[in-house]
Design brief:
With about 400 residues, the chain is α/β, with parallel strands linked by helices. It is built from 12 helices and 22 strands. It has 2 domains: about 240 residues, Metallo-beta-lactamase, Chain A, CATH 3.60.15.10; about 140 residues, Flavodoxin domain (Rossmann fold, 3-Layer(aba) Sandwich). A 7-stranded mixed β-sheet has the order 1-2-7-8-9-10-11, with helices on one face. Strand 10, helix 4 and strand 11 form a beta-alpha-beta unit. The protein is elongated and about 80 Å long. The chain binds MU-OXO-diiron. The site of MU-OXO-diiron has 9 residues, from helix 2.
Length: about 400
């Protein structure tokens, strides 16, 4: 395992996790990377480290450049274990290295997680000199945890951005210029929707500062390094963090014997007939993390659930829980479904969406047993009317 030179005296010493498929609920079909960066200056500096099971791989890459015992400075931009989990493995070689994290939350989190380590607090605009370089810190709380910060080296014009602008891709290629921009922006969207989405306001604040910096490279702690498409990546982050919406609907449903599915397809046609771009998704056939990407820029969500044992389908319950946490803003909703006898499924889903603070377009629509064509026609008329009224509000 060898380090990769990314700029004079700066090396990528991260790891490739080719088999990563589930990042606590985020389905990662392309694997992932945990990026760490080694700076050779008067004080050898390590920026971030990697998830603990990969510690030896990272150490091997460091050893391909220097003796790890020479590391004097460790920057922890974020205490989540994918970026800090190998801290003890590094300290085994360099027990006297100084560790810096954002204060107070990064220090608290590092010491609470790893115990028996000393961590020095830094805050926005603090500088740690490592020789030719002044490393400047900018706290970016909640992009993704309260402790997140980024590290800027004006000498190299590099921003080490940690989770911000990351993507879950495992690849030997380290730069954006080795990929099609459409692919990268799509992966940036996937990552943002599943990791950063709740924190749009905080992301806007962070971007305002980042835009002032003179930057040639943005080196996140996941995925490729931004070099050629920095502007495109920042522009997309800007748009996503403003919760910009398209005239788009997502019809999400589960179905036991096909009746709710039949309704879902007709509901979707109603949206499409109203001139709204419409996607149809069976929740048991798509990972929650793909569904949230579909939903992120949608104006409308229609949720279809049969009633199963006096409740909603477990697949929908799982998705609604995932969605509640990520909180895509500014959604307008309605709920529909078929039922056999008690029929609480639609009410329960309706209440969940109401409790999330979204705007109801129309009261829940439910049909007992299999829908007849006249019931479907009436349902579609009601939806068309509601959408027309809604559009004028
Ligand atoms: Fe990549 Fe929030 O950790």
């Amino acid at each position: 395992m060898e380090a990769v030179l990314i700029k004079e005296n700066i090396y990528w010493v991260g790891v490739l996790d080719w088999n990563l498929r589930d990042f606590h609920g985020y389905s990662t079909s392309l694997g992932g990377t945990y990026n760490a960066y080694l700076i050779l200056d008067e004080k050898i500096t390590l920026i971030d480290n990697v998830y603990a099971p990969f510690a030896e791989e990272m150490i091997e890459r460091i050893k391909s450049v220097i003796d790890p015992s020479k590391i004097e400075v460790i920057i922890s931009n974020h205490s989540e274990p994918d970026h800090s989990g190998s801290i003890h493995a590094v300290l085994k070689y360099a027990p006297n290295a100084k560790i810096y994290a954002s204060g107070p939350s990064g220090v608290r989190s590092m010491m609470g997680t790893y115990h028996d380590i000393e961590v020095l607090p830094v805050k926005t605009n603090d500088i740690v000199n490592i020789g030719k370089r002044d490393l400047k810190f900018i706290q970016t709380p909640l992009v993704h945890w309260p402790d997140n910060m980024v590290t800027y080296s004006a000498y190299d014009k590099i921003l080490f951005s940690n989770d911000m602008l990351g993507q879950h891709i495992a690849s030997f290629e380290r730069y954006d210029e080795d990929f099609a921009i459409e692919f990268l922006l799509s992966e940036l969207r996937n990552y943002y929707a599943n990791i950063v989405l709740p924190y749009g306001v905080q992301t806007q604040k962070a971007l305002a500062i980042v835009k002032q910096l003179d930057i040639e490279l943005i080196a996140p702690s996941h995925g490729i390094i931004w070099k050629k498409y920095i502007k495109e990546a920042i522009d997309l982050y800007d748009k996503m963090s403003k919760y910009e919406k398209e005239n788009k609907a997502v019809v999400l449903y589960d179905s036991m014997w096909g009746s709710t599915e039949k309704m879902a397809l007709e509901v979707a046609e109603s949206f499409s007939n109203a001139g709204i771009k419409t996607l149809v998704r069976h929740v048991r056939k798509s990972p929650n993390s793909d569904l949230i990407v579909d939903l992120m820029d949608a104006k409308y969500i229609a949720v279809g659930s049969p009633t199963l044992n006096n409740g909603i389908m477990p697949s929908l319950a799982s998705f609604l829980c995932y969605m509640k946490g990520l909180n895509p803003r500014k959604l307008n909703f309605f709920v529909f479904g078929s039922y056999g006898w008690s029929g609480q499924g639609t009410e329960i889903a309706d209440k969940e969406l109401e409790d999330m603070g979204y705007t109801r377009i129309i009261e829940p629509l439910r049909i007992q047993y299999s829908p007849k064509s006249e019931q479907i026609n009436l349902m579609k008329e009601n939806i068309a009317m509601a959408l027309k009224e809604f559009a004028t509000k």
